[in-house]
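Q: Predict the bound structure with beta-D-mannopyranose.
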Amino acid sequence: MAPFKYLFTVSILIIFLFFTCCQSSDETKSSIEIQIDNWQFRQAGTENWMPATVPGTVHTDLLNQGKIEDPFYRINEKDQQWIDKNDWEYQGKFQADADFIKNNQIEIAFDGLDTYADVYVNGEKVLSTENMFVRYTADIKPYINEGENIINVYFHSPINRGLELLDAHGYNLPATNDQSENGELGDKKVSVFTRKAGYHYGWDWGPRFVTSGIWRPVVVKGWRHAKLRDVFFKQIELTNSSAKLNAIAEVEVFEATEGEFEVYLQEKKLTSVKVKLKAGLNTINADFEIENPKLWWSHGLGEAYLYELEGKLHTSTGSNESVKSNVGLRTLKLVQEPDSIGKSFHFELNGVPVFAKGANYIPNDNFLPRVSASEYEKVIMSAKDANMNMLRVWGGGIYENKTFYDLCDRNGIMVWQDFMLACSMYPGDKAFLQNVKLEAIDNVKRLRQHPSIVLWCGNNEMDWAWANHDENQGWGWKQQYNASQRTEIWKAYEDIFHSILPEAVQEYDPDRYYWPSSPMAELTGGPDQHANDFTRGDIHYWGVWHGLEPFSNFKKRVGRFMSEYGFQSFPEFNTVKKYTVPEDWDIESEVMASHQRSGIGNLRIKEYMSWDYQTPADFEHFLYVGQVLQAEGMKAAFEAHRRAMPYCMGTLYWQINDCWPVASWSSTDYHRNWKAMHYFAKNAFKEVLVSMDLEADKVDVFVISDRLESFNSVLKIQLLSFDGQVYFEEELPIKVPANTSSKHFSINLAELIGDANPRNVVLVASVSESGSLLSESHWYANKPKDLELPKVEIKRKVSAVDGVVSVELSTDNLAKNVFLSIPDETAHFSDNYFDLMPGQSKNITIKTDKSAKEIQNALQVISLVDTY
Ligand code: BMA
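A: Predicted complex:
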């Protein structure tokens, strides 16, 4: 090392030491945090400690130590069911210097413990936990020493605890997705007794890994006199000229003192209040105003503007504390007004009715702590890039990390937030209810500052499945119980969803709407409460898929807000190769079947495929056709829902992501690759969409616009043969009305097709504004399997400009669902699975680490005609 570099390093070190020593000295007396490190773990009852990662899980620590194989590879899941039936111990250490232990208050703060944990500090038990979703803090001042301190966390098996609780309860509760048999528990469904992510016990797209671990960060905190526990910047009133807010600060002080609380917008002080603080917990209120506020808008409607606000506290005892938050200013209503059809159900943001376009969201991994910030970013940016403005955080997963909501705040993605209860009925004993209450309060307080959250929803599908008020509705759950059990189960439901959760929202986040269950018609206490009526409330429509109804039923079964519907596909071949070996390449093989958790999954895919497509020649082509099938089916839904605007004001498909590599309803796979459906969603969710529909004997052409103003454009309609002959052409100047759907053209099908061969024509509709194309759509008069698709030669020219690789594709004849891929490589294409029109050329950019030359050699381009 050069001498001056050495000097520089030493001086940095001195400055650093000076800074840290001042931080903890008597002069500033603010709170400080110490990290716990040297984590190790072992199976309880064994001797040897092994290095551990915190935050982490037992499973991933075993994997890192080479004690188990990759849980997601082939059928390794089956051999790893012993892990959740054992207890595990973690141990970490931290150093406390003489100054630190002088703090009046020293505590250990866990952001998340999964789940039944006893925490010891230097051998003394300080905490026992039973809820993965709750933040826990314990006073450890009496037990810590100067020098080394040892933290032990003992995790009781969630399965053994679950079995004890089930025993005490006396009978099983409905828990449709709990894969107790895969967990070697027979029919014992223990998931509902533990406040832990439901999908850990298996789901119809997820494996069973019932994890344990310190799954979110943990720190040791010390403070002398005062601690700012929470600051909530609550919006009181919002007009064009002013935003009135109230900062609500929770301050804990060790001894009575005086102080000053201030609110800053970056460097600018907005308010300050003098406060007298008593020993213990205090609440401070400070009103302030932001003039000419910039509003927070959802993606597509405007900027998702955030104000960086800071609450600062100074006390006469010398404490300086501060909390920063990004605050979005917006008004939000869930409008449910009676109308001629039933009752509306839509979100109104800043006075504007917003059509919600998006998807349901599940956790990104079975092993949550390994989901990095960049993985979160990939998922949220995939939503934004597909023109979405809403995600539903579904109730069988987790209340997400701050990173998730920060990304949604910044990118204008509204969040429909479920409480974490799904597809089951839960116990109603006092301890359970109290636990749920703590969880609700903790999470509402943790998340309420995020402008992206637009709704708190009690649960997923429980009101619908139990259907208490109508004997003939529901999933047959209630009929499995005797009268007193039924009363007991429904009472637990009402306690949680009609009292505890709405009361928590009312108390801590009163401006946000609470909706008891998704789906639900209306809270009436009668048979019309449950979601079977498409004219009110939100709808989960599973007639397509579960009910084997054709895709064309998507347009017949449209509700006011479609919060779930979907269709499965397998992940792309590159992803499949990562969890299989060649002998597994058959969807019925043991390995592929274990990465397909829906009992009817393969049957449904094959059945629907046989209706519309020729049988693919091999496994690889089957995967591709399966993705096209899913994409085309879902396109029918996306467009039907948008065409039905403003009757229907939301479409959230099931589901945007996966938690492991699997066949599922997802539009992006575990490795965040876009499936065909995600590209189709991007097209269908454009701000302006042209959509064609055959009704009776007419083809109708609709234009749907989310713009808040009407605009002039040109609608062009062409009927082409697959080799590019033009049979029909019309160009119409149209005025597209604001924020609605409207029909602009209609033509009798027989008249349109005339003498042309209906198996050899495509109808192309496009909308352009001042010469630039806004949306284009293709419509065929026959199912893909009945089309006379020509064998095509797709020409390609790969080039790179300023490091951006792109390929130009062209063809003389129509190429249907052109699919670009690079075997064994991760690459993202700006478009894929599209129909390339005869004579058209299309430029696709490729996100890749490879050079243009390498791409030229490796790029694989096929279309539907190549699959049979
Ligand atoms: C809905 C969801 C999930 C499930 C999906 C597919 O009911 O709420 O529970 O994974 O359908 O069956």
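A: The first strand starts at residue 32 and ends at 35.
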